[in-house]
Amino acid sequence: MNPNINRLYQLSNQLQRRLIGLMSGTSVDGLDVVLCVCHGSGMDTKVDILHFETVAYQAAYRKEIQSIFSKREVDLQKLCLLNGWVAEQHASIIKGCLKKWKVDAASIDLIASHGQTIYHAPKRFHGLADFSNATLQIGDGDHLALKTGIITISDFRQKHIAAGGEGAPLALYGDYLLFSKKGENRILLNIGGIANFTRLPGNLDGSEVISTDTGPGNTLMDAYMQHHFTGKYYDDQSALANKGQVNELLLAGLKKNEFFNTGFPKSTGPELFNLAYLDKATIEAGIASISHEDMMATLNRFSADTIVLAIKACTEGWQDTVVYSSGGGIHNPLLMKNIQEQLPGYRLSNTAILGIHPDAKEAVLFAVLANETVAGAAIKIGNGSSDRPFVSMGKISFPN
Known about the structure:
36% of the residues lie in helices and 21% in strands. The chain has 400 residues and is of the alpha/beta class. The strands form two sheets. Strands 1, 2, 3, 4, 5, 6 and 12 form a seven-stranded mixed beta sheet that branches. Helix 3 (76-101) runs parallel beside helix 5 and helix 7 packs across helix 13.
């Protein structure tokens, strides 16, 4: 037997596994690295976080990714080169974290790597009759496995698409395994570049579980700041937005997109919600000029309003609903205030109270998916339809 296959067999029979989970989102601000222990699998899964760190990307790294990120036309040579290069950068970051944490790489069973999303193209967005949903993440798993010496599981989204899904959001599966609780209706809200949530009913009926994108989280706010303020990547502590007033005309224009009228679940990305989208809405609203402060206040409300609209639509008839938030958006005070004010009958908290650091949650969820790849089975959520297929996900790369 190939020794790597034998190693996987041994791992699948262990009571617990030590994994490194990696997440790099559409904000392209840094790599989330979590070292955790996954106990069991399926609905018996428990996770202990041993270490967590977000390693900020250098400006040179961001520039390389942004040269091909969310663009329909790119330099194919650059795309090919970056596929392995991104994995090498991530491997270097992992080694740095392990050294800092004083952890031997040989003690790690698996790496779960999301990679870096470059383009997300659900059929509802591209509209081409002969083609299905598509998404592309770079940061090749073979490069990562060889550079770290650790079995790597990566490219999780393709199986979801192959089974008829849109490849996002994948939080559905990990949220269901880790956070479902009998007697409590829960919304697991993650606010990254794009905002998404998972609906977990307190009756534990898997057919009622859904996960959906809601629209922009931080992506438009961050893009505006980066475009107009050199060296600033986001509106720190809502400083600019707090000084502005919402332009109601522009806000209404921003909401005029078919995406918001489409049923759930659904997915999107910066391919739709970008500065061109903002420019178009501004022109169509007849706005000749607007201050930076008013623009940021309006974009902040746009994200909050569309998040709230989706939550309300997916929790109609629910009582005593708790919203547990995570992701970079929870550090935007005005955004969270705008959400809270529009959900007066809901309790708002974050995933720290559930034992998962809110900044680490997505990296943990990919660790859980990798744990299922090795030790679990197809996760049965919903009715097995194309938007919530019963699949296990991830491609396995050996270190030799």
